[in-house]
Amino acid sequence: AIVEISPWREEAEVIRRLIIPIDQDNNAGLECITWDPIRRVLIAGQEEDPLRLWEINPVTGKYKQVYKDVRYISGFLRDIAGVYKRAGDPGIYILSEPSERIIRLDEDGNPVDGQ
């Protein structure tokens, strides 16, 4: 669900519920989320088996897989524990807790900065 939480309210208001039909046979589901302020979309990380990043438009409810399959591109991530999208940067930062790494992917999903 997408909720609006204002500091002066006592309760959160549900704005919209979105269902993303991800494979959850071996997966615990979405683990983390970040906001892309330029494109005005959410980017959510699917934790493991398979590792995926999803772009979600909170207005239209449309979603798509982005940045390819992270595990096969990076070769060393065991999960996705957090994601961060910096304004104006076409890439994304990914935290993998068990791998003890933070990597940056470019807009094509390739590791940068010698990772």
SSE arrangement:
Blueprint: E1 2-4, E2 13-16, E3 30-36, E4 41-46, E5 52-56, E6 63-66, H1 70-74, E7 82-84, E8 92-96, E9 101-105
Structural notes for this entry:
- The protein has 115 residues and is mainly beta.
- The protein contains 1 helix and 9 strands; from the N terminus they run ββββββαβββ.
- It has one helix at 70-74; strands spanning 2-4, 13-16, 30-36, 41-46, 52-56, 63-66, 82-84, 92-96, 101-105.
- Strands 3-4-5-6 form a 4-stranded antiparallel β-sheet, with no helix packed on it. A 3-stranded antiparallel β-sheet has the order 7-8-9, with no helix packed on it. A two-stranded antiparallel ribbon has the order 1-2.
- Strand 3 (30-36) and strand 4 form a beta hairpin.
- It starts with a strand and ends in a 10-residue tail after the last strand.
- The mean pLDDT is 80.
